[in-house]
Amino acid sequence: xxxxxxxxxxxxxxxxxxxxxxxxxxxxxxxxxxxxxxxxxxxxxxxxxxxxxxxxxxxxxxxxxxxxxxxxxxxxxxxxxxxxxxxxxxxxxxxxxxxxxxxxxxxxxxxxxxxxxxxxxxxxxxxxxxxxxxxxxxxxxxxxxxxxxxxxxxxxxxxxxxxxxxxxxxxxxxxxxxxxxxxxxxxxxxxxxxxxxxxxxxxxxxxxxxxxxxxxxxxxxxxxxxxxxxxxxxxxxxxxxxxxxxxxxxxxxxxxxxxxxxxxxxxxxxxxxxxxxxxxxxxxxxxxxxxxxxxxxxxxxxxxxxxxxxxxxxxxxxxxxxxxxxxxxxxxxxxxxxxxxxxxxxxxxxxxxxxxxxxxxxxxxxxxxxxxxxxxxxxxxxxxxxxxxxxxxxxxxxxxxxxxxxxxxxxxxxxxxxxxxxxxxxxxxxxxxxxxxxxxxxxxxxxxxxxxxxxxxxxxxxxxxxxxxxxxxxxxxxxxxxxxxxxxxxxxxxxxxxxxxxxxxxxxxxxxxxxxxxxxxxxxxxxxxxxxxxxxxxxxxxxxxxxxxxxxxxxxxxxxxxxxxxxxxxxxxxxxxxxxxxxxxxxxxxxxxxxxxxxxxxxxxxxxxxxxxxxxxxxxxxxxxxxxxxxxxxxxxxxxxxxxxxxxxxxxxxxxxxxxxxxxxxxxxxxxxxxxxxxxxxxxxxxxxxxxxxxxxxxxxxxxxxxxxxxxxxxxxxxxxxxxxxxxxxxxxxxxxxxxxxxxxxxxxxxxxxxxxxxxxxxxxxxxxxxxxxxxxxxxxxxxxxxxxxxxxxxxxxxxxxxxxxxxxxxxxxxxxxxxxxxxxxxxxxxxxxxxxxx
Length: 839
Fold this sequence. Notes:
mainly alpha, 8 strands
C-alpha cells in the first residue's frame, strides 16, 4: 500500500500551528479521507486507535482544543515544553504507521463534500441532535433554520461528513446561492449528481429516475431565495423511498413532512462571574474567538487581562458565529478591549471577511442585507420599524409600527430568522426580539426611510401609557404581574425616556418617572431610578404641573430608600411648595411624611407632627394607602423612641389596612417593621415568624429593594436563637444585595450584624473591630460632637456590641475599635466575611 501520510500533512490533520488545514484539500489526501468515510471517521479512528497511555493523554487535548500553542498543551499536561515536543514526535511516528496502514472504506461514495478548513466549535451536541433526527425512520426532510451567520451551512457539512457512511450512495452537496428559479434548481441538483440531458426527456424526470434506487443524503444549501421552488423537493422525495434531504434556509419551506431544526446561538460565558481561564476557554463562543484570532495572530492567547473583553465581545455579538469570527479577525491590529469598544456599531466595524467566502458572508451587513432584500415590501416596513424595540409583543408592534396584518408579518419575519421568539406564551401573545447586529441593520434602514422620529414618538407614547396603566398596581393584588411586565419592558422604557429627554418632551418624561419610581423602588433600581428622575426634573425645571410633583416624590423616596435620611431631601420641600400652589392636596400626605422622615432623627416631636398631619390629610380624602403609610411611619418613630407597645399598635393598624387593600409589597414592609418591634421586646420566635413571612412576600412579589433589610433583621433574630450558620448565610446575602443597590446605611447595618455574629461565636475582639468600622461608616463615631444619625441605627450597633464591651477590658475594646475605624469600606467587608468564615 502506498505511503500517503508524512509528518507535515499529519500535523495539518491535527491542526497544529504553522500547518494549515488547507494542505489536505489537495490530492491524494482529500481522496484518501473520502475513501475512509470523511473527516469525522478519520478523527474517530484517531481517538480509538491503539496508543500508549502517554500518547493518548497528549492526543486527546490536541483533538479537543485544536490550534493551541505548544506552551498551552504543555501547561495543561503539567510537563515542560521540551518534554511536550519529545512526546509529540513519538506520537507523530505512531500515528503515521496507523494511518498509512488503514485500508479504505469498502463503499465508494457517490459524490464528495466540501472539506472544512476550520474546526467546528461548540456544536457537538447540535450535530448529534441533527444526525439523530435525520436517521429516524419517519423523518426524510430536515430544514436547518436560523439567521444569517449562525453557521447553518457549516453544521450541514459537518452532519453530512458524519453520516456519509450511513448512506450507501453517500452524500450530494448542492450549493444554491446562484440559483434563482425552480428550473435552475433542477439543473443545479442534476449537475451535482452528474445527471445529463438525454434527447428531449425532461431533466426532472431524468433526475427522478437516477435517484430512484439510491440510498442518498441530499444537502440543499441556502434555499431561502427560492422558497416557491420547495414543492420540487417533495417531488424528489416521492420518487424514491431511500432519499433523505437536509436543507439550510433562513425560513422553512412549509412542506408536508418537513422537520424544522432551529440552529441555536453559541453558548455564552457569564460575564459577571468569569470562570478561570481554562474553564472559560471551554465556552464555545470564547473558544471560537480564540481559535479564529490565532489564525491571524499565532501569538494570541486568552489571558487574565483580556478575558473580560473577550467575554464581552461574545455577548455583544449575541453568540453569532460569523460575527465572532469577523471580530476575531481584527486581533492582528486591535486588542480585545479596543474591539469591544468599537462594537457599539458592529456593522461598521465588522466590514471585512475572507475573500474566498460568498459576498454575503464577507461582511455582516451583507449577510443581513441578503435576507432583507428577499422580503416583501410590507415585511421590510415592519422589519425596520421594529428597530425601535428591544423586545416586543404583538400588541406593542401593532400600536407602534402601524402596519396592517402585523401578526402575520411577524410570523413571517420569525420564519425568516430576522426576529426570534423569546417567549412563546406571553400575556399578549409571543414576545420577539432581534439579534443586536440585525437590529442595528434595521435601525439603519429606518433612518434611511426618514421614519425614525415618527416611530420613536409612537414608541414613547405607547410605553408612557403602559407605565401609567401599571402605576396603580404597585403593592396591589396584581403587583406580581405588573412587576414582571415592567421588568420585561425595562429596556423599552429606558429607550422611551431617553427619547423624551433628547427630543425636549419634559412633561412626558416627568409623567413617566412619576409612574415608574415605585417600581424602581420595589425592583431595587434605586441609583438608576434617581438618575432618570434627576434628568427629567432638570429638563422640566420650568414645568409646574402635577407630573413634576409626582417626580419630586420619587426623587425624595428613592433617596430615602438608599439611606439618605439624615437631612430633609430638597425634593420633598419643592414638591410641598408646588402642591400647595397648585391645590394638589391629595399629594400633600406623602410629601409631609417624606419631610417628617428626614427631620425625625434630630426632632422626633416635629417628625411626629408631620406624620400626623399627613395621616389627617390621607383620612380626609379616604386614601387608605397613604393612611397605612402614615401609620407605619408613626409606628417606626415610636419604636425608635422606645415606645414599643404603642409602636406595635400603630404598625398593626397599618398592617390591617394593607392586608385589606391586598398590597402585598406594603404588607411585607410593615411585617418587617413589626418583626423588629417584637424582637426589641424579646420575643425572638414571633419575630422570626413575622420576618420570615415578610421575606416570603418580598421574594414572591419582586420587592428586591427591601429584601436585604429583612434578611439583616432576620439574621439578628436567628443570632439571638443561636442559629448561627443560617444567620451567617443571611448576612452574606444581605451584604451582597446592599452593595448592588449602593446602600451605604444598609452595608453599615450588615457589618453591625457581623459584629453580633462574631460576639456570638466568642470572638469579641473581631466584634469590636467590626463595630468600629460600622460606626465610622454610618457617622456614629465623632468624639467632638454628638452623632447625627437615626437613633435606631445607633441603638442596633450598641446592642450588637454589648457582649464585646462586657467581655473585653476597656483598653482592648478601644484598640480593636480604632483598628475598625481605620479600615476602608472594602477592608471592613473583607474582614467581616473572613471572620464569618465566608472567604
